[in-house]
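Protein in question kept in full:
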Amino acid sequence: MFRLTVRAAMLAVIMMALAMPAAAQARIAVIDVQRVVTESDPGKEVMQKLRALSDTKAQQGQTMQKELAALQDQFNKQRFTVSEQRQAEMSKEIEDKQIAIKRFQDDAQRELQDAQRRELGGLEERIMPIINQIGQTDGYTLIFNKFQSGLVYADEAVDVTDRVIQTFNTAQ
C-alpha cells in the first residue's frame, strides 16, 4: 500500500515536471545512496563499526555454543555413571544454556539492528545537507534515490553519486 502511494506520488511529480513549459524545464538527478554509504570515508567508518559489533556478537555466540557443546558432551559421557538427580541437574543446565543462547541471539540481533539504524541515521543526517547543496548549486528540481524510488532507468549522466561522495569525503 505504501509503495503504491509512493509510486503514485512520484508519477504525479514526474508528470508535473514533464508538463512544465520548456523555459522552466525540470532538471532531474539520481543518487545511489548505497554507494555513498559503502564508498565514502564516513560510510566506511560506519560500516567498520557495525562489522566490529557484529563480529564481537558472533564471537560471543560461538563461545556460548562451545559451552553448550561441552555441557552436552559431559552429559553424554556421564549419564550412565551419575545418579538420576545429577542427570536431571545436568539436563537442566543444558536447557538453561539453550535458553540463554536463544536470548543472547535475540538481544544481539536487536542490538545490531538498533546500532545500524542509529549509525546509518546519523550518516543520513550528514549526507542530506550535501545532497541539498548540490541540488541547489546545480539547479536540480528533483534528486531521486536511484534504487528506492521505483525508478526503472536513469542515464548515468544524471547520476550525482560520485560528486556527493567526493563532497562528503572532503567535508570532514
The chain has a mean pLDDT of 87. Residues 84-137 form the longest helix (54 residues). The two ends are 39 Å apart (CA to CA).
